[in-house]
Each structure stands twice: as C-alpha cells, then as structure tokens.
Design a protein that fits this description.
single chain, mainly beta, 5-stranded antiparallel β-sheet, 0% helix
Length: 316
C-alpha cells in the first residue's frame, strides 16, 4: 500500500504483477518504408546523444543527424502507431504505442526489436520511461501500467489506481521521484522510481496529456482546453496557470535555463521565460495540430505533429 505524505493525498493500492504478453503471441506487420514518412503524423520525439528520434503513425520512426533539418525513416517491426519514445543514452532507447507495442533499440535507433505486442488487449501505450538499462515503465489506456526489471526482456502488469482511467504520460521529477498524469485530473507521484504511488489532489477534473520537469523544484502538467498547472513542491500543491488558450496542450520541452515551450491543437505554441509561471501565446500560421516539441543538440526547437517535424527557430 502506497502512503500519502500530505492531507490532500490519497493512497493508491498496487496489485500483484501479472506476466505481460510476449511478442510471439501475435504476428505484427512491419512498418512500410514510405517516401513521405517525414510528412506524416509524428507524435513524440527525443534526443539520443546528438541525434533526434521521432515516432508516429503507422509505426514510422524518423532520425535526424543535423538537428532537424533533414529526416530519414528507418524500419520498424510493427506498423502500430507509436506515441512515446525515450533514450537513456546515445544508443539505447524504447518506443511504445498502439496494440501495447514496445520496441527497443541498441544502436541509436537504426534498428528496432519487438518486446511486446498485444492488440487483443485493446489498450494502447502512451508513454515510456527508463531509469537505466534495466528498469523501465510504460503507461497507457484504461490504467495500463507495465514494468520491466531486465531491460524489457519481460514485462509485468501492475495497477497504480483502482479505476480504469487513462494514464497518458510518465516522467522523472528529480532523483528517484516519478510522476504519471492522465484522465480526470489524475496526478500520481512515486518517491522510489515507481515502487509505490500516491494520488495527488489537483483543482481540475479534466484530462492531462503531459508534464515536464522545469528544474529541481518545479513541475508543469497540462492538458485539455489549455489547462496547465505548476507545482514547486513535488506535486503536493498546484497553481493554475493562465495560458490564454482553450486549445488542448499535448506536449512540451524545458531547457536547462528554465525556458518552457508547450504545444497543442490549432498550431498552439506557448513560450515561458520564467519556468512556466507565465506564457506568451502564438499560433503557427498553418494551424496544424502539434503533439510534441523537442530540443536539438544545438538548441534548435523542433515541433512535431501533423505533416511531420518542423524547425521553429532556436531555444535560449
């Protein structure tokens, strides 16, 4: 039983792990290599050393070695839509997506192997986080929570909430602390890399689509209809942030000097120079929906969404 550490917290029961389905139980169709893949819907991105890696619809995986100026597609063993990607260093990373798909690479994204594929679950995975080469967590729809202690060779199912609400994102918030956000204002924190979880009270009951750590004290979460909230105490207390928009906020990035960019529907781009305390709103002229933002090795800002990755200047 997880324990809360503030009066506004409620305990979350963690059930016994159940063995996850192995890839051999299904026969996925490999992603099609398509000339127009760099102009397809791209949903998430990350930095692997100096290389940008982005993933999206139909199992598309794109790599850029020039800070987002050009992209090339690489083969993937499943054509399921990919929704999240994380690397622990320049070589080793994981991507997750629909059909409970989990992919793994050890060569900087050049090639990928299948670790989990379970379309009969009807539970897409939305995000993934690894602490090191062994321990990782993937989260998704209807409370899906998968954990591995052997680099993804085997995965186990767990429950961190008693309901079936969607878990949309997982991220580190400093040291051993982790945070998951999801449906119905769900914010769950762990002080021990995901072993125990506590639900936090948020003054909001709508969906949260993402979150990020701004500095060692500040966390932002964001979601439906432009809602964003800021905490400076690990998620125990939250302040609503006026974003000036009703567009859904889907992803974002924070720089080492606390500059924050959030992106979302209708080409929404929010910039903050004060660690997420306030934002300046703008819209891309094309109004294409944006799903994520990633910072290149040279400080370039790359926006991901409809019609693929787009360079958008430099981040401070």
């Amino acid at each position: 039983m997880a324990t809360g550490d503030s009066p506004s917290s409620s305990a979350i029961k963690v059930t016994a792990p159940i063995a996850a389905k192995t890839p051999a139980a299904n026969a996925p169709i490999p992603a099609l290599l398509a000339p127009l893949a760099p102009r397809s819907l791209i949903l998430a991105g990350t930095l692997a050393g100096t290389r940008l890696v982005a993933v999206g619809e139909r199992g598309h995986i794109l790599l850029s070695d020039d800070n987002g100026h050009s992209w090339r597609q690489v083969p993937a063993p499943a054509n399921a839509t990919l929704t999240g990607v994380r690397f622990i260093d320049a070589k080793q990373g994981w991507a997750v997506g629909h059909d409970a798909t989990i992919l793994h690479t050890t060569d900087g994204g050049e090639s990928w192997t299948l670790q989990n594929f379970a379309p009969d679950w009807e539970q897409p995975l939305m995000d993934v986080l690894f602490d090191d080469a062994d321990h990782g967590i993937a989260v998704g729809a209807y409370g899906l929570f998968l954990e591995t202690a052997d680099g993804g060779k085997t995965w186990t199912k767990r429950r961190i909430t008693d309901d079936d609400l969607h878990l949309n994102a997982i991220f580190a918030t400093g040291g051993d602390t982790r945070m998951v956000v999801g449906e119905a204002g769900g914010v769950y924190t762990s002080p021990d890399k995901g072993h125990t979880w506590t639900k936090r009270a948020l003054p909001y009951e709508g969906s949260l689509f993402g979150g990020l750590m701004v500095d060692d004290k500040t966390v932002l979460v964001f979601g439906l209809q432009g809602h964003a909230f800021r905490s400076t105490d690990g998620g125990q207390n939250w302040q609503a942030i006026d974003t000036g928009t009703k567009a859904g906020l889907m992803g974002g990035v924070a720089t080492p000097n606390r500059h924050v960019v959030l992106v979302g529907a209708l080409g929404t781009v929010l910039n903050s120079a004060d660690g997420g305390g306030s934002f300046t709103l703008s819209y891309r002229p094309d109004r294409l929906a944006l799903a994520d933002a990633v910072r290149g090795a040279d400080g370039s800002l790359v926006l991901l969404g409809d019609e693929g990755p787009k360079l958008a200047g430099a981040l401070p």
